[in-house]
Design goal:
Elements lengths: L1 H15 L13 H10 L21 E3 L2 E2 H9 E6 L5 E8 L4 E3 L5 E5 L3 H6 L7 H8 L7 E5 H7 L15 H14 L6 H11 L3
Antiparallel strand pairs: 1-2, 3-4, 4-5, 6-7
Helix pairs in contact: 2-7, 2-8, 7-8
Length: 204
Amino acid sequence: MKSFVVASLLAAVATVNASPVPTPPGIPSASAAVTQLASLTVAPYVDDGGYVRSLFPTWITISGTCNTRETVLKRDGTNVVVDSACVSTSGTWFSPYDGATWSAASDVDIDHMVPLKNAWVSGANAWTTAKRQQFANDIVRPQLWAVTDNVNQAKSDQSPDAWKPPLSSFYCTYAKSWVQVKYYWALKVTSAEKSALTSMLNTC
């Protein structure tokens, strides 16, 4: 798994760092997202009470001394400098959720586009811990985003029918990314979630 992830990351970083605006890999076109959304199973969330974050191990080592968080910070930042432990010591990060720019990595969280608990109640409770680890550290699809820390905290584990990014201009990309993650990982959506995603895709 590790060698596959690293190879995919190298290709993604090469293309992403060419742009000043962070664009994690794997974001589908609007039309593809509409098709993917239509194919998802619609069902209520099933919360069995068994969710704990440790069932989705983060952050794993991606390459050398770099874990998933530091890898995403390097991928999505501009002029990022890291020390020997791969900790970001300088750089700037643009948070597409709210349009803020930060110069300290401590002000940036790595958001799971589809939150871990949302994944749990959407089907990941039936996965192995190894699969949940892959999901929680997925740098191949648009699952991990460097964003303003308090915006990430405000989102928490909410789906798009309960929380949307502060910037409405980002609704299209947000919905396309959310749908892609749920589609690839074969997770369910609720009817309210599907309705909200449909409305957001209509802004594309």
